[in-house]
Design brief:
Helix content: 55-70%
Strand content: 5-15%
Radius of gyration: 17 Å
CATH architecture of the largest domain: Up-down Bundle
Strand order of the largest sheet: 2-1-3-4
Number of strands: 4
Distance between the termini: 25 Å
Structural class: alpha+beta
CATH class of the largest domain: Mainly Alpha
Largest sheet: 4 strands, mixed
Number of helices: 8
């Protein structure tokens, strides 16, 4: 049984976009048994010594799979796929492409979206944010335009089949909801809609909202 350390509380701005969502989604898609261990982030439970032994950087999420501990949400998604034999293609080159798109999601697409999200939700009205925002928007638009061109040629990142990198990319792109960026990238918007129509995602999101609303 995999124990998943997730948010039991979180600032309202990050509800619906926390990174534990991608981990639980992957476990659902892979059919792996798991249990959630919510931590009260608003009270700093994730910063206590007991959790530091699981996650040295005191971040959520992480997992404990019968003594095997793993953190970094993208690594956990790939681990779930490998363990279950689902959501990853066969072959060295195909697996390399899966790794490529996973890393592109967290290293190329996510940083400007996270920075823009931070400006809009946690620094709105400050002088530095108003000065910085146009540059961040331009960088985010460039990343989404490149992704939009890629998704014009296929339904998912690796082709016709939904895979582990799509879980990572979709949850990254959720950060852009409400920013107006997706309207300029129709292929990206359609891709997100396809991925979020999956039953496993709907189940995970509903439970996430219920948990954080408690």
């Amino acid at each position: 049984m995999i124990t998943v350390y997730v948010f039991g509380s979180a600032p309202s701005a990050v509800v619906n976009v926390t990174r534990d969502l991608r981990v639980v989604w992957a476990l659902e898609e892979c059919g792996l048994p798991y249990r959630l261990q919510p931590l009260d982030a608003l009270r700093g439970e994730h910063k206590q010594d007991a959790y530091t032994r699981v996650q040295p950087f005191r971040q959520l999420p992480s997992i404990d799979d019968d003594g095997f501990r793993l953190f970094e949400s993208a690594a956990i998604v790939l681990y779930a796929a490998e363990k279950s034999g689902r959501l990853l293609p066969d072959g060295v080159r195909a697996r390399a492409l899966a790794a490529q798109w996973t890393l592109a999601a967290v290293n190329t697409v996510e940083p400007p979206l996270i920075e823009l999200f931070t400006i809009d939700h946690f620094a709105a009205g400050s002088a530095w944010a108003a000065e910085r925002r146009p540059t961040v928007v331009e960088r985010a638009q460039a990343r989404l335009a490149a992704l939009d061109a890629e998704l014009a040629r296929r339904r998912y990142l690796l082709g016709d089949d939904f895979s582990a990198p799509d879980i990572i990319m979709t949850t990254v792109l959720r950060i852009a909801h409400g920013s107006g960026l997706l309207e300029a990238a129709p292929n990206v918007a359609g891709y997100v809609e396809r991925c979020e129509a999956r039953p496993a995602w709907k189940k995970v999101l509903a439970e996430h909202r219920q948990r954080l609303a408690a």
